[in-house]
Amino acid sequence: MAGRYLYRDKAAFVFLPQVADFDKYFSRQLSRLRTEYIDYYLMHMITDMAQWKKLCVWGIEAWIAQKKEEGKIKQIGFSFHGSQGDFLEILSSYDWDFCQIQYNYSDENYQAGVTGLKAAAEKDIPVIIMEPLLGGKLVTGLPTKALSIFQETNKEFTPAGWGLRWLWDQPEVTCVLSGMNDMAQLEDNIHVANITMQNTLTQEEKDTYQAVKKVFFESYKIPCTGCAYCMPCPQNVNIPACFSAYNASYTVSRVEGLKQYYMSVGGISETRSLSSLCVQCGKCEKHCPQNIHIIEGLKSVRKKMEPAISKPMLSIARRFLHRNKGE
Questions:
Q1: What's the CA angle centered on 96, arms 91 and 101, to 5 degrees?
Q2: Pairing assessment for the beta strands 38-46 and 6-7 based on DSSP bridges
Q3: From the CB of residue 243, how many other CB atoms can be counted at a distance below 10 Å?
């Protein structure tokens, strides 16, 4: 029995100790899906270049080539949660058929960001967007003032519609993954996708997004815009990602902030970009156009996002994800 699937499996979170396990998990996935092949096979949650290199050492490239030759995998892609630099490296390290990134109007410079989106498009690699509405927070979590700004510009669109229009306006976006809970949301999403053409947002509408973002970010504890002028950090601290996750812990939730933090700064991968790596050299502060006290900000991030209990928990997570190291 064959079919068309975009598939990810919890097994994809497990880094495999033996090449033979590739086939074991893949066979299990085919069995669960009751299909003989998968059209779009996603290697989920690659967080840094070190992970991809390790998979290459294990023979993943030859395995993919074999599955493609057998017709069991039609298109191979990866989803990404890490720093922009690692995304660009991974993107160029293999002949990918597609990729998947987190991207929305409030996260324009988060993880792969707009730079990663455009880099993939330049390579003719289709880009699938996850978290287009920040897990629904750009619908249910918008301040009243932000909602009013949208309504004053155009009452036709819901907050979800505004979020999706921002994505569909960009020609580099191939597919948008939007979660829906009822028929009304489905109809709203279809309506927006049908009427939104590329590069058609007016200047007034673009200004509206900026105004909404300003209101949304007013609750931020650290006024970082994610411009990345402070980068690269000599100690490899991912400063914009640290501040973005820290702010999310206030504007969205503590859980969401911690999730973003440990996904984007290498808490569970081999390349660390944690705030605790800061040695207070001050190089970053010289380049910040917002004149943010970055060193003090990173201290606040470390205090909230790296509690003492996080160390043993991360150690367990890393052993689970990197069992082959025998740590």
A1: 55
A2: parallel
A3: 25
Domains and CATH numbers, the chain: 6-217 (3.20.20.100), 239-325 (no CATH)
Contact at 8 Å (CB) between 164 and 138?
A: no
Distance CA(62)–CA(258), nearest Å, equals 36
Q: What are phi and psi of 74, to 5 degrees?
A: -90, -45
Q: Where are the alpha helices (DSSP H) in 127-220?
A: 137-140, 144-153, 159-168, 183-195, 203-217
Residue 66 phi/psi, 5-degree rounding, is -65, -45
Sheet hosting strand 6-7, strand order edge to edge: 6-7, 38-46, 73-80, 98-102, 127-130, 175-176
What is the distance between the alpha carbons of residues 285 and 269, in angstroms, rounded to a whole number?
A: 27
Which residue has 């049908």 as its token pair? 194
* Higher per-residue confidence, 14 vs 226: 226
Residue 62 has pLDDT above 70, yes or no: yes
DSSP class of 177: -
Task: For 231-262, write each residue's pLDDT tens digit.
Answer: 899 999 989 889 988 888 887 778 888 888 88
Residue pLDDT, tens place only, 88-119: 999 999 999 999 999 999 888 888 999 999 99
pTM: 0.72
